[in-house]
Amino acid sequence: MSPQEVLSGLDGFTIEVPSWAYGNSGTRFKVFSTPGTPRDPFEKIADAARVHALTGLAPRVSLHIPWDRVEDYGALAAHAEEHGVRIGAINSNLFQDDDYKFGSLTHTDPKVRAKAVEHHLECVDIMAKTGSTDLKLWLPDGTNYAGQASLRARQDRLADSLTQIYAALEPHHRLLVEYKFFEPYFYAMDIPDWGTALLHCQALGDRAQVVLDTGHHAPGTNIEFIVMQLLRAGRLGAFDFNSRYYADDDLIVGSADPFQLFRIMAEIASVGGHLPESGVNFMLDQCHNIEDKIAGQIRSVLNVEQALAKALLVDTDALTSAEEAGDVIGAHDVLMDAFHTDVRGALADRREARGLPRDPMAAYRASGYAAEIAAGRIGGTQAAWT
Amino acid sequence: MSPQEVLSGLDGFTIEVPSWAYGNSGTRFKVFSTPGTPRDPFEKIADAARVHALTGLAPRVSLHIPWDRVEDYGALAAHAEEHGVRIGAINSNLFQDDDYKFGSLTHTDPKVRAKAVEHHLECVDIMAKTGSTDLKLWLPDGTNYAGQASLRARQDRLADSLTQIYAALEPHHRLLVEYKFFEPYFYAMDIPDWGTALLHCQALGDRAQVVLDTGHHAPGTNIEFIVMQLLRAGRLGAFDFNSRYYADDDLIVGSADPFQLFRIMAEIASVGGHLPESGVNFMLDQCHNIEDKIAGQIRSVLNVEQALAKALLVDTDALTSAEEAGDVIGAHDVLMDAFHTDVRGALADRREARGLPRDPMAAYRASGYAAEIAAGRIGGTQAAWT
Amino acid sequence: MSPQEVLSGLDGFTIEVPSWAYGNSGTRFKVFSTPGTPRDPFEKIADAARVHALTGLAPRVSLHIPWDRVEDYGALAAHAEEHGVRIGAINSNLFQDDDYKFGSLTHTDPKVRAKAVEHHLECVDIMAKTGSTDLKLWLPDGTNYAGQASLRARQDRLADSLTQIYAALEPHHRLLVEYKFFEPYFYAMDIPDWGTALLHCQALGDRAQVVLDTGHHAPGTNIEFIVMQLLRAGRLGAFDFNSRYYADDDLIVGSADPFQLFRIMAEIASVGGHLPESGVNFMLDQCHNIEDKIAGQIRSVLNVEQALAKALLVDTDALTSAEEAGDVIGAHDVLMDAFHTDVRGALADRREARGLPRDPMAAYRASGYAAEIAAGRIGGTQAAWT
Amino acid sequence: MSPQEVLSGLDGFTIEVPSWAYGNSGTRFKVFSTPGTPRDPFEKIADAARVHALTGLAPRVSLHIPWDRVEDYGALAAHAEEHGVRIGAINSNLFQDDDYKFGSLTHTDPKVRAKAVEHHLECVDIMAKTGSTDLKLWLPDGTNYAGQASLRARQDRLADSLTQIYAALEPHHRLLVEYKFFEPYFYAMDIPDWGTALLHCQALGDRAQVVLDTGHHAPGTNIEFIVMQLLRAGRLGAFDFNSRYYADDDLIVGSADPFQLFRIMAEIASVGGHLPESGVNFMLDQCHNIEDKIAGQIRSVLNVEQALAKALLVDTDALTSAEEAGDVIGAHDVLMDAFHTDVRGALADRREARGLPRDPMAAYRASGYAAEIAAGRIGGTQAAWT
């Protein structure tokens, strides 16, 4: 196949961007503010649409409730459509209410659990109003001290809460369950690993799927192995892409270990997981603490595209032959050949052919959009990640 | 309850010791030899029996095939019985054959897979001859380089191989499947985590259970959480106990993080997992590279007993009350009260009441057994871990 | 020696508590508020004094500037003295100013560096006014992306800035330099490890010393080794005690790995580092995100005391003999004997003999202080960690 | 500058290969044997020379004593010269003698320490006979259990032993001191980190320098930071290059995280550390457990060359400008532009121009050398890593 033919494998591949990436974010130590930061969900969607306009890769925007609560969700969806994008997954929030100090869906108090379940019914309602089909649930519940709570009783209460949420979904909805190794709790998270997420999804039904956030694993974890395993089990619902060196650093995807991102995309591509019919939702979940947010999002979607393009170049026949021959270095070299290939020119050509800027980063810088929003978005409260 | 009543919870609790702990072991850099090291399975069992005689805690010995191959397994079982112990789990070996360089149950070559399956039929046969009911399988298969092999095809081949092994079991047999984070391969292990082990066990049937080796996890992993989850799923078949600071260090259990061992046993005790009817097999898997091996095993079983004794002291009503009241420090303190209690005197009293030495370590030192075997086991080849 | 004689080694041992532990803290996801939280430095000192009154262990309070800025530092010092405590180390803050987004003492812009240096001159001034002799500097500077900055140029600028600060100290002052593995930056911290802190201290002079925060290391790091090495080099200035399972979790010291805390204190005690003349300042640096703050501080100082008490029980002659005999388990058992000893009764006796409550936790609960401050501290703004 | 001009920065850059890479290696579980494995140091050097002949990059071979002991070192050096290479660093061995079970240079027994020091005098003698100028010392000493030994006394004994070794060096010799996080001991290594290695080098003198093995760090450690710091302190003596995912995996350098290798080489290149006059010795230290050893070495030196070539492409002016402008993504993108550039063609051109094969891997495969040595090296004992 020619490179062009290979890159046609990118057709139909899309990435979903999160509304919260356009607001301010930070660490527990400091949230720096930035000129031009959106002040409401409409402005966030306008920024997200700019990413799509320049890259052609990001036609959907995830919302986060309550951060993106509006009076009229129909108007928000229409606003998105006018800007050339649409609403993606609806993310619930179980970490910002004082009631959730000791848990939400896992809390000992049935009233708190009911409140947390109820919040998801609101999200399902917003799904109906915005056309979203994915309800994404990251459970931030956990404990800080051994003995603080019964790990097992919390699982039982969680299972019960999830059953209620799952029951509220419409038949074309999915429940996407995310796991996280640690933070915001430091002794035990209630869904710390893919095994736990999978067990809950198995108990719920086929439309419960696992979300793999690339920053939510222990040091050294082989993430592409988990990708393979969840695909094999038919339970990989979505990615939350980002980069990490240490913990859940939430850096630009592909910035810390581009080879890992390539390996993940190669695992995906090897079974057609990048094709729209696979049902895998490729989402970003990042924090642009110190860098320009829109440029950060453009860089991120380009990095994912680049990794997938390289993955599509892998000569799988040669790989299989080398494996069967026990040619360890030969097989590894087949993979590395794809990784070391510079696909940036071919991707620029492809963009141009589709009426997009060859260099979206340069086009963004040249567009004056940053200056425009910095000047225009004076007053109001800057949206923040938290 | 009085302390004595509490410690009656130890009645019936047993630990299984591995035959290979009595042979020499080491790192890839060096295996140091030791006077008195057993030269055959009969001598290993004699040493293991000494651990049981002094502690009353270790009535079973795991065998490892082919390291413990003998002409007459009936004779070996009888030898064990004469020494007051019996044969425990049969451990297969998939890592020491040149054919397994690129995999055993996962190999691309069906002949290699057949050989690896066949090896387990031998193990099942040994189970029949020795009265063992647990077949323990640690899959050392893996790859060192990305691209070296198809992670997914290896899972499919593994599933097929495991199905054949499981089919060979008798109805009262269990298959215990162990997972390991890394080593002896360094890119991807084929069963790296409890989720993967669980998926294979689910596919096989109820008598396929997971083995949790306390040294086989990523840094920071909350092991008692996995214990809880596997118990909740009805799939915790056995432990391989040992200690680690870094990797799979295989140190004496309880020597590196006694509080972690206590938390694990507290999770076990909270649902009666320490009772014989739970079916959880508490095994050791350690390497005494530089220390006396028999003393190392005595120390290990005493450490597990001590941790369980402390776990039995936990005031679970107070824990639950504190949790329900949101009293974080109060709940934690309930757990710590049990941990900080010095149970050594009570355990010595209990030993004395059962006709055992108050201090098994001192009794072992005073017994002259070490000098006796050092003098008697001259000539032959010292058994080694590998 | 009798236990009482052994525990007389605790005489003169003190722990310094941080003013910020009494304010609210949290993660980047949420800071929960708490009834009774202090609203100014005077109330923080009142709370800290309560910890000392109940334990007799915590006669000093660290301040943090600007969080603890007041009009009249003399009045604050007098307030402390009235409450039975005094002012300890002055902590500077280099992470909360918008100017510091890309660095403070390391910034490319000399004006920003000058501002950051200037801030320390204010701290030195506060030292003069409060009687403090320790200036503690945690450098939060770092970068999130490879290429973002020249790692080396930042070291050079840091060295220059530190030289200016050191020059401003009075002869009886020390500069305590803290290192941290990661956070709030995720690619490279500018002082990530003890080696870097040491190099800067060596360049500055004898009164520049290293601060070891127990939560600021890579997974698996042997902290007592670093304690030993810094003591051997004459550069261990202070501890920031806390506990961690994963990252810089800032949990109650001794709650996650009490054996590690014991090993650290044993290393300290083996060279008399716990004696006042050693110059090591034993400080806490913790966040009580979800637990009662004053109770959390009491528990923390008691945990450190307990660990030191056990460390003092170690039979060092037996240790040395066992080492020289190559008796690995024997030597380890000497250490474990001390660790497994329950010293709580002896410590309660000692407290009673000194006119302190036998059980400071119970005494605090019984005192009504929590209810008193919850009722009395209405209105105003709760102090927060950030 | 044109790419050719940029790549002229590679002139004079060399990599040193280890004799032991050509022998068999493995894990503690298994050492697989391989056809054609050298049976003596002469055959190892012949294999190493083949790597240099095909790549032009590897003109020196490190020896390991006692593995490479020969009757006549002059003959060995002449043999090397005939094959177009020369002898590089002499590596001592402190881990394979039964006397070293509890330590070598740190042992409590002065006789054992004397023996370990004496071994280095032999190495110095071999240096004289082979023309080597670097004595490389990896201290494998450590302990497995807390309490097993006095960490501090071991440092003192180590310092004394190192002083004796250093005193035996000739004026043009260097002592290269390597550190390692863990293995073969699992509680504490006696030189676990760069800070400890540095302190010993400082005590010894200017010709004592630190060796950075890329596999010898805690998870998450920023290695290029340490490179920078050691260069800044004038103490970076050498690299031991390899790759890791988990522990000291000793995989082919550049195979696990090529971006990390690039960052390291970029840090090197930014201060001219790749130039011969810098004195940094770029060595490999790897284990080819399952792959072809000579091909593995060729791949390794090519990977280092490729990483350096990309590093030389970095536009440092643009980097500095972006940093000064606070343009985080812009600066990062400058670095990534170099990394994403495919330099393989330019490097092939450069090789061709120097009379070397364009594709050394293919040339090696086509050469028939593997078949030749497999056929010729029958009988004798295969050399092994240990």
In brief:
The structure is a homotetramer of 386-residue chains. The first copy, chain A, is 44% helix and 11% strand. In chain A, helix 4 links the parallel strand 3 and strand 4.
Would you give an account of this structure?
The structure is a homotetramer of 386-residue chains. Chain A is of the alpha/beta class and 386 residues long. Chain A has helices spanning 3-7, 41-55, 73-82, 110-130, 151-168, 194-204, 223-232, 258-270, 293-312, 316-324, 328-340, 344-353, 360-367, 369-376, and strands spanning 16-18, 60-64, 86-91, 134-138, 142-143, 174-178, 188-189, 208-213, 236-241, 281-284. The first copy, chain A, has one domain (3-376): Divalent-metal-dependent TIM barrel enzymes (TIM Barrel, Alpha-Beta Barrel). The first copy, chain A, has 14 helices and 10 strands. An 8-stranded parallel β-sheet of chain A has the order 1-2-3-4-6-8-9-10. A two-stranded antiparallel sheet of chain A has the order 5-7. In chain A, helix 8 crosses helix 9. The longest helix of chain A has 21 residues, at 110-130. The radius of gyration of chain A is 21 Å and the shape is globular. Chain A starts with a helix and ends in a 10-residue tail after the last helix. In chain A, 62% of the residues are buried. Chains in contact: A-B, A-C, A-D, B-C, B-D, C-D. Chains B and C meet through helix 8, helix 9 and helix 11 of B and helix 8, helix 9 and helix 11 of C.
